[in-house]
Amino acid sequence: MEAVVMHDDIVRFISKHHVAALSIRDEEYTWSCCCYYSFIPSDPALLFLSNSDTRHAKLMLQTPYVSGTISRQTKSVFRIQGVQFKGVARITDSVQMRQSYSKRFPFVCLTDAELWTLRLDYVKFTSNIVKFGKKLYWERTER
């Protein structure tokens, strides 16, 4: 199986930030939430915490398909950067992943929230810093 390679600019951007906005949908409505995440670049995924009794977690347990954004906060249109993504979210019980998340967010030991893995399947990165409207795309080749 081929290694999944994501462009270095996308990896740097996602790694540099720590808050993602997620959107989850069922047959009636869409619900959004924000979460602190840790990025796994080797098999592109976001790790985040959520209690299974939250509205967004209940929706992800029913329908794990998630879309979202990570953006740089700026007032200048020439400094805009961000990613739009889609993927599949699942609760993970991996001790290794929980340790990885806790390195970035030590407060994980204070909560009993479930650790989720959002396996990224598609990412679009936009950056106006290098060139206005510059876009890079990444898509997982295996499902």
Walk me through the topology.
Layout (H helix, E strand, L loop, with lengths): L7 H9 L2 E7 L4 E11 L4 E6 L4 H8 L2 E7 L9 E12 L2 H10 L9 E14 L6 E6 L4
Antiparallel strand pairs: 1-2, 1-4, 2-3, 3-6, 4-5, 5-6, 6-7
Strand-residue proportion: 35-45%
CATH topology: Pnp Oxidase, Chain A
Question: In the CATH classification, which architecture applies?
Answer: Roll
Uncertain segments are: none
Number of strands: 7
Helical stretch tally: 3
Instruction: Sketch the major β-sheet.
Output: 6 strands, antiparallel, barrel
Describe the structure.
This protein has 143 residues and is of the alpha+beta class. The protein has a single domain, classed as Roll (Pnp Oxidase, Chain A), CATH 2.30.110.10. It is 19% helix and 44% strand. The protein has 3 helices and 7 strands, in the order H-E-E-E-H-E-E-H-E-E. It has a 6-stranded antiparallel β-barrel with strand order 1-2-3-6-5-4. It starts with 7 loop residues before the first helix and ends with a strand.
Describe the structure concisely.
This protein is α+β, with helices and mostly antiparallel strands and 143 residues long. Helices cover 19% and strands 44% of the residues.
Features:
alpha+beta, Pnp Oxidase, Chain A, six-stranded antiparallel β-barrel
